[in-house]
Structure formats: structure tokens, C-alpha cells
Amino acid sequence: MKKILLSLAVLSAATIGCTKLDEGLYDRQVADQFYATPEGVNAALADIYNEIRGDWGGKGYAGADRGWFDLNETCTDELMLPTRSDGAWADNGIWRQMYLHQWTSSQEFMNNTWNWLYRTIYKCNLAVDLLTKANAPEAAIAEAKVLRAFYYWMLMDGWGNIPFYTDINVTVDKVPQASRATVYNFIETELKANIDKLATTKGGSYYGRFNKWAGYAFLAKLYLNAGVYTGTPKWAEAQAATDVIINQGGFSLVNSYLSLFGDRCPDQEVLLAIFIDANQAPRNIIGIRSLAGPHGNALFGISTWNGATAHQDFINKYENGDARKAQWLTGAQPGGVTYDVNISSLTSAGIYEGARSAKYLPALPLAGNGSASNDFPVFRYADVLLMKAECLVRTGNAGAAKALVDQIRSRAGLPASGTNPTLNDIYDERGRELCWEGHRRQDMIRFDRFTAAHDFKPISDNKYKLFPIPAPAFITNKSLVQNPGY
């Protein structure tokens, strides 16, 4: 972890040193020499990796609020922030808009995430350009390209037809809008050309970075949702990508489910993690945002925020005896708090209504700025097993899928299932295993559950399967076309 932080420090020094050079051929030669060195490679890549962790203002994949994580989780059945009877979490209705599918192009989360992703795309394009011109090691260029594909995937997944460019000399107002299929094809081509060039090393200086195994997990995820993106399913291709990981990666499930979500994600199961340190590389507020204030004070000496929870219908998906149910805290807790699993209202919930999440129970050290040190798993082996199981069921081989699902059930302390899994079984198992990890919106759309009614949410229009392009984006690029219905 310290090596990642060191890379960020190197980045700052390198950026200052290289951007203040006089213009001319000599400058180009100096830059090429620098970005061909290990220090230059670290500087170029660290600037991109720095963007992946959460921070205020919607920055990052996960960790802070009102960004990508909330955009993709609060619109699902597994995470809600009801307005409390004391008025807490009203926030002008932004959380209710997401849960009820009532957002508009002016919704804060949309613009936050859009701006973060396009800022990062520019940094990716710059890194690819610098490393390519410097004839940097092939693996470094491949890593920058896979990272760029990762950020474009989030944009394509969320918004469909998006502004797309790889040339650092194109100005914002001139970036053309590409079809979802075009961006999908670009991502697929980049991954197939580059993931086998990535390192196979796990952990150490590669902790928190894309290696070959994380690259194949990304490719599997892309193919798993190909039918949504292009209209043509790619189940066989998704299964083939998972098979590379299963047969060659040497991964396995850890014994303790909740040990996956603490200060460091175990390399045994987690293929890609986001490094977070409350003081040096913040932030993760996910657990802090869930626990009630007196509960947090009793446990950690900080007043936690009494917000995020899940509806009782989702909590009730867990069988008694399922070890994963321990991630949901109900009943009496330290600090004199008693959580009632039943939530009576989205607009005026009782102060202690709703189970609270211990999945990211704040890891030390904590910081006074609202941050815990929990690392965040992006891709892990349990997801790989469930992706393969889903592909097998969808292609008529549920018998082979059973052993994969039973691996997940066994780790959870449950007996093997009595029958071969159905698609509904896979869907529910994914929910129980992967909740609050950023996968649910994709899963609900792929299983055709996203617009259906659940608990407080009525049936919603199909337009909500895509987010609207944020209103401010049309000011800077007048050629953009809004998604239908918005």
C-alpha cells in the first residue's frame, strides 16, 4: 500500500517537473526519457488510480457519497436512505428521487459522476499518449489502456451513447457522441488486445492495480451484460473469461465473509481492490453513513450518520443460518440503540428503523473528516463463480452451475441446494453475496427487474435503464443528443 502512496507523491513531483519545461524538441525528448523510466510509468499510472477512490464532490468509484456508487446503488432494491421522522436525510429529495426512479438531468449525482469520469478519461488518454510516445514497457501501456476502458465502461453502462475520444488534442466542444455499440466494441477490442500483457502478480506493489486476473474479470463483466449493451448476448464469451480466472488464477474463497471488507482486501479472493486510508488516501464513508450516531460513538468514539439501510424485503432474502446475514445489524446495539428491521415510510421513517450494515464496519484508523480505512473490492472471486454459474444456467447447463453456487452457499454456512439453480436463484444469490458492492443496478437491468415495483417503489419507465446526460454537458458540447424520454 505504501508503494501506491509513494507513486502518488512521485506523480506530483513529476507533473510539476514535466509541465514547466520549455517547448520544443528538447522538451519532447526529456518527457520521452522520463516516461520510459519506472518513475515515469508510476507517475502516469498513479494519476489515473488516484481517481478511482472516493472523495467529496462525487469523485471516485466508491467510498464517498453522491457519486458513482450512489448513482448505481440508491436506484436499486438493496440500498436506501429514507428521510427520517426528524427530517434527517431529506436533502431536497435527492435520495428519494433515486430510489423511486424520479431523477432528471439536473440531479446532482448525474453531473458529479459524469464530470469525474470525463476528467479521468482525459487523464487516461494523456497517460496512454505519454507512455506510447516514450516507448514505455508494453505492460505499462496496456495497463493505461485497460484503465481507460474501465472508465469508458462505466460511462457506456450508465448513459449509453456518450461523447467518445482518445485524442488529447480534441476540445470538449468537439468530442463526438458515439453509439453504445461503438463504445462497447472499443472496450472489447482494448481488453482483448491488452489484458494478457498485464502482470500476473497478486498483491504487493500490484495491490489495487489491474493485473491479468482483474482484466479477465472486467472482460467477463462486459460480456455478461453484452445483451443489454448491444442486443446480442455473449454468454459463452463471458464464461470463457471466467474460466481463465478459475483455471489459471489460483483464487479461492476466504473462510470469513466479513473479513473481505476491512482495512485490506485479501488477495486470496479479491482480484481488484481500491486502496483507502482515512488520513493519507481517503475515503470510505459507507459504514459510517449507515450506523446511528450513539452506536458509532459507543464503538468508535465518532458520531456516525444514521442514514443508509435496506428495505426489510431485501433483508428477508437471507436464510436463517446464512453467515452473510450478520452484515445486517438489527435489534439492540451498543449505545442504547435498537434497530427495527421494518421501515414504515420512505418519507418519514423512524429514527432507528431499518437494518444497518456492518459490511464496511469502520476500519481503523478513522479520521475526523468522516472517513474510515476500509478498502473496497471491485472484482472478487465469488462474483466470478456466480457469473459463470449464470452463464451456464442461461445456456441450459444448470447442473454444472449447481457446484459453483454451492461453493458460495458453503462459505455462508448453508447446505448445498437441493435442486439445480434457476435464474431467479442466481439473481437472489448475487444479491445476498454482492450487496453494496456496486453490481446491483447492472444485475437488475440484466434480469429485467430494474423497472418493476418493489416495496415503496412503483413500476418505472424503461427510460430509467439509462441515466440522462447532465444538463450542464449541453452547454459545453451543443452537438449532444439526450437519451430518449428525458
Features of this protein?
globular, 486 residues, mainly alpha, 19 helices, two-stranded antiparallel sheet, 8 strands, two-stranded antiparallel ribbon, disordered N terminus
Task: Please specify the SSE layout and strand pairing.
Elements: H1 2-19, H2 25-35, H3 38-49, H4 68-73, H5 94-100, H6 108-133, H7 138-159, E1 162-163, E2 177-178, H8 180-194, H9 212-224, H10 226-230, H11 235-248, E3 270-274, H12 286-290, H13 293-300, H14 312-315, E4 328-329, E5 331-333, E6 337-339, E7 356-357, E8 376-380, H15 381-394, H16 398-411, H17 423-434, H18 440-446, H19 473-476
Antiparallel strand pairs: 1-2, 3-8, 4-7, 5-6
Order of helices and strands: HHHHHHHEEHHHHEHHHEEEEEHHHHH
Please, what is the average pLDDT? 93
Structural class: mainly alpha
Sheet with the most strands: spatial strand order: 1-2
Fraction of residues in helix: 40-55%
H/I helix tally: 19
Short structural summary:
With 486 residues, the protein is mainly alpha-helical. The chain contains 19 helices and 8 strands.
What do these coordinates show?
Helices cover 45% and strands 5% of the residues. The protein has 486 residues and is mainly alpha-helical. The protein has a domain at 286-374. It has a two-stranded antiparallel ribbon with strand order 1-2. A hairpin with a 3-residue loop joins strand 5 (331-333) and strand 6 (337-339). It is globular and about 65 Å long. The model is unreliable at 1-23 (pLDDT under 50).
